[in-house]
Amino acid sequence: MKMRIGIPKGSLQDATLQLFAQAGLQIQVNSRSYFATTGDPDIECLLIRAQEMARYVEHGALDAGLTGFDWVVESGLEVVTVADLIYAKQSRGKVRWVLAAPESSSYQRAEDLAGCIIATELVNVTRNYFLGRGVDVKVEFSWGATEVKPPMLADAIVEITETGSSLRANHLRILDTVLESNTQIIANKAAWADLGKRRKIENLALMLRGAMEAKERVGLMLNVRQEDLNAVLAVLPALKRPTISTLSEPGWLAVNTVIEEHSAWEVIPRLKEAKAQGIVEYPLNKVVM
Question: Contact at 8 Å (CB) between 69 and 88?
């Protein structure tokens, strides 16, 4: 059964392709085509701008796709939210759409912008934000480079940010958060109702989440004498509980666990002090919770 998946083209493309590869599905992209092949003969991919993904999923041109929660809300279309995938262009975190105005302006809150022009790509969400506060503004669509528009072309903007560095570089001050967003897997309603396609989509979500859980984590395995086990366990910040098994040599145990990669620098020397031996740190591809 063939299934067509939408991959976000643009800022999220590289991070998404890396995530798929870590999940075990290699995607081959041709720079001259919007179509991409995969290692699964039943899955083909189409590179689509995140802003348009919900439209093509809702219409059925795509069975499922990856896009931001922001663009699903902006579209107002009915799609199935399959899973949240918390990753962005630069980090493993959510992004924010913020209301920002020039540092030199007197604007301090949304209510101060009554009668003003707001530039943004997220037009519908921005209009609803101001309507909800009873503030009458003119919302204009921005085709890009939104940060440079105040104060000559707009009084304020609603723009996406991860760190706020671009806003600061353009001498803009954040007044409020309009919307928090993260990447989601969305599905077409008819595809979700098809048991075969639904299973494929759920399996895809499972593997992608597993790959995300593995990011910034490593596996640890070690050997320890029975009498030193409690001292070793006191050091380990286990994901849940470490796996403990007996070795062929009486009185010795093998311990396997998962830890945050940044903690290995401190944990491994402490394990050695607790009399652990044969300590091995190894990378992880997937952690399925």
Answer: no
Residue 76 CB partners (closer than 8 Å, separation 6+): 124
Report which DSSP code applies to 6. E
Residue 225 near residue 252, CB atoms below 8 Å:
yes
**Does residue 67 have a pLDDT over 90?**
yes
The answer to whether the beta carbons of residues 156 and 104 sit under 8 Å apart is no
Q: How far apart are CA 35 and CA 32, in angstroms?
A: 9
The pLDDT tens digits of the residues spanning 205-240 come to 999 999 988 888 899 999 999 999 999 999 987 656
Question: Residue for token digits 């975190």?
Answer: 93
Residues in CB range of 60: below 8 A, 6 or more apart: 188, 190, 191
User: CB of 43 within 8 A of CB of 200?
Assistant: yes
Cβ 135 vs Cβ 99: under 8 Å? no
* Model pTM score: 0.82
Q: What is the DSSP letter of 91?
A: S
* Tokens (6 digits) for 200: 């494929």
User: Above 80 in pLDDT, residue 89?
Assistant: no
